[in-house]
Amino acid sequence: VLAVLGLEAAAPGECELTRLLQDKLQYEMRLQYMKHYFPIDYTVQVQYEEVLRPSNITHLRNRAVSEMALRYLWFHVSSQAMLRIREVLPEKHPSWRYTQELCQLFDALGKEYSKYRQTDVEAVVADLVKLLHSAESRRKAVRPKALLDNCLKVMRMLYRAPCEWGWG
């Protein structure tokens, strides 16, 4: 993964990986790969819990859920949503390589999060993560671009201060 991303031999940390994700999730790229290269009004079937919006994060913050637990939730939701998008793409699709690169970044970020166990996060977040990995949840149709828009918005909410990206 590191060779593909052109990084140094040292494994990048959480902030560096989220910076790389932010670069890959630029508006123009999301628009081109997740909207223009898909049929008009194309949607992907995702679990209800795979749609994580900034309002969900605000609600959980108001319930005193820790930032680490919220990042853990964001990672699981976003990586699951990326897998849903990648599942519908044949290898020759113009968006396949882009989604593959995003999945590789999420895989690398997953290694950073592997040191955290579900028992270390609040019960509400652990329950949501369990729902994500179960097949029993309700499904809804969502546009691929909307999934990545939410991914970026929530990432900006959760990583703004610790990574000091200078967003204003």
Question: What does it look like?
Answer:
The chain starts with a helix and ends in a 5-residue tail after the last helix. It has 168 residues and is mainly α. Residues 1-11 have low confidence and may be disordered. It has a two-stranded antiparallel ribbon with strand order 1-2. It has one domain (12-160): Growth Hormone, Chain: A (Up-down Bundle), CATH 1.20.1250.80. The protein has helices spanning 2-5, 14-24, 27-36, 54-62, 67-87, 96-113, 123-132, 144-163; strands at 44-47, 139-142. The chain has 8 helices and 2 strands.
Task: Name some characteristics of this structure.
168 residues; mainly alpha; Growth Hormone, Chain: A; two-stranded antiparallel ribbon; 8 helices; 61% helix; disordered N terminus
Summary, kept brief:
This protein is mostly helical and 168 residues long.
